[in-house]
Specification:
There is one protein chain. This protein is an all-alpha fold. The protein contains twelve helices and no strands. 78% of the residues lie in helices and 0% in strands. α1 runs antiparallel to α2, α1 packs parallel to α11 and α3 packs across α11. The model has no long low-confidence stretch (mean pLDDT 91).
Length: 264
Amino acid sequence: MTIFQAIILGVVQGLTELLPISSSAHLAVFPWIFKWSQIPESFDIALHFGTLLAISLFFVKDWIGLLKGGFKQVVKKEKSLEGKMFWYLVLATIPAGILSLVLDKLSDCVFGGSMIPIAIALIVMGIVLYIVDKKASANTNYENMTLLQAVLVGISQAIAAAFPGVSRSGITMTVARALGIDRESAAKYSFLLSTPIILAAVIVSLDAFVLDLAFVIGVLTSFIVGMIVIKFLLNYLKKGSFKGFAIYRIVFGILILGLTFFRF
């Protein structure tokens, strides 16, 4: 892994993990397009650790409030928005984590790193995201989410584990919109929801941890880009829609299909 590759892939991870356009697809496609060697597991950890740090730092005040609220709700029986949302996140994460582990293994066996399923997932999910975002109402915000909405959005993460190219943030934001949650709230809840899942993925892969220059650069690059992307998306979605991201997914998927057949 060269320094140049580490920077490029760090930027790619920081952009695509947090936007609804699939980091798994981009991290598989970029080395394939440029004929680089496969991304080492240690560097994959670095990329995800960087975006984990970005999400954690950006929402550090939220997480402190959530943890305090969750603790007080159990110990002191004090109800609050933070306490409610903390336990919503817990209840949404547990089944999603279990399903993700199972479906991730199944995905490796079925798809085996082929570019065609990734391209198809990008296109199909792009179409679904566009239609859902255009048709869905926005009558629920973050503060008024129900337990059912929270759990359904959480469980949807498992679909991203089963189908490379779907995107964790893409599927959670799409399901949130389908359930009538406004765009900004859908993005915020998706980011908070991704924190324990990414943390678990990093912890599970710690045995492959290799601290070298590429690792450090990957962490720093994905962290910096991730912080910028989170702020951009939350501000953009106050007035903007997911249309541009949906179109990008479709175009990128078609490009991958074209390159696949051209290479054959």
